[in-house]
Amino acid sequence: MSVAGIVAEYNPLHNGHLRLIRRIREELGEYTPVVVIMSGEFVQRGIPALTDRTSRVCALLSCGVDVVLELPFTFATGSADRFAHGAVSSLIRSGVITDLYFGAEHDSLTDLSEIAKIDFESDPAFSEVLDTCQKNGLSYAASWEQAASSVMASRTSGSDSVSPEDFSRIIHAPNNILAIAYLRELDRAGSSIAPHLLLREDAYHEESLKESAFPSATALRKQILTRYSSLSKGDFIASASELLPYMPVPMIAEMLHLWNSGTVPMGEKELVSSAIPLIRSMELSRIASAAHMGPQLAGHLKSAVRSMHFDPGKDISVSFREAVETRCFSYTRILRALTSLVIGQNEEDLSHLDDPRYLRLLGFSEKGRTVLKAMRSGSEIPILSRASDAFHFGKDPVFSRMDELDRLSHDWWTMKARNTFEEDFKREVIQFKRNRLYRS
């Protein structure tokens, strides 16, 4: 039996995501189980998710997904390589996945696979260009791109090789970078999981909603957060009907349920407003010890925040970005560092928490029950159904720390969004059976 895996955030779930699920069923069969490993309350860009994981799980199960697992916080908020390692390794260790599906902006799986097999860092020219670019003030990401491009340009070009021009275009697209990282992880693990590519179409990366069936999640979040900050509660909830052309009804219904009950849609603003007091009050050495931070970025943030002035006419996240973003420090890296700062993840955690130690089960369908049975007998790592399950592995410090960061990140999100904490210990696995959701 084929079992398809997807790595995703669904922040929020939109019609482009459903297109990938439909493609799986078209290619592998109508009854093929789909297993998703999904970020929790923080996502790879380093920001809080718009909605909680429960709402996304319910929407996914209602839209035909069979098993939903949570990607641990330490991987969900990492760089593309770390994110891919945690997700793909989890799917491999589950023991049931036969096929991995993902989207990308480039339409050739062969090209992406070729790039994934190149060990750029071992080429002397790579290190030389990387060092030069960083000394000239470029960020690590920009320096890496130039160094990798120099390696591609020096390679002997065959008829089937990726040209330097194509390479430069490919690695400028974020989902191409993730796709390459997924392929690299499969290759390094010697996995038999078959990769499948779906070309992303239309306005995936536009920041405004247009007459496209597949707008970007960024555009949808921007619209939702802008409306929340400018409309009354009633008008805000009524405006959700305008999202119907772009998002599945179950996701909109889950969001309306959250907002109507008083949960706040979350985003960059909440992260920044929590981080600024910490940057202002903490010793520089403590700030620098946060994961993804380092002394240089810590010093830059400390200085920039000290010079900031409150502007009532601007959103705090806009003022912060204008104050801190430079050529040396990409804003995505800054956001990841802020997330680690507010949650308490330090640089040592990144080296110690090197592999996923468990699979956290969030929900399953009737079909997914069969997959779970196979997973429980074949998984290389434990499957956690309740928060208390982690206590059985308390003697493993790596396991405990990974779980602790998960719980801290959930508590931070729920405290900010609805003034609660420790919801994890009341959470039950969500089930979808007989076309009905069963949740705690």
Summarize the structure.
This protein is an alpha/beta fold. The protein has helices spanning 15-28, 53-62, 73-76, 80-94, 109-116, 124-135, 140-154, 164-170, 174-189, 217-230, 233-238, 249-260, 268-281, 284-288, 294-307, 316-324, 331-343, 347-352, 366-378, 397-418; strands spanning 4-8, 34-39, 67-71, 99-104, 194-199, 359-365, 383-384, 430-433, 436-438.
Strand content: 5-15%
Tell me roughly what share of residues is in helical segments.
Answer: 40-55%
Shape: globular
* N-C termini distance: 31 Å
Mean pLDDT: 93
Radius of gyration: 22 Å
Number of helices: 20
pLDDT < 50 runs, ≥5 residues: none
The oligomeric state of the chains shown is: single chain
Topology, number of strands: 9
**Structural class, from secondary structure content?**
alpha/beta
Order of helices and strands: EHEHEHHEHHHHHEHHHHHHHHHEHEHEE
Q: Main β-sheet: number of strands, strand sense, barrel status?
A: 9 strands, mixed
Mind explaining what this structure looks like?
The protein is of the alpha/beta class. 52% of the residues lie in helices and 10% in strands. It contains 20 helices and nine strands. Strands 1, 2, 3, 4, 5, 6, 7, 8 and 9 form a nine-stranded mixed beta sheet that branches. The two termini are 31 Å apart. The model has no long low-confidence stretch (mean pLDDT 93).
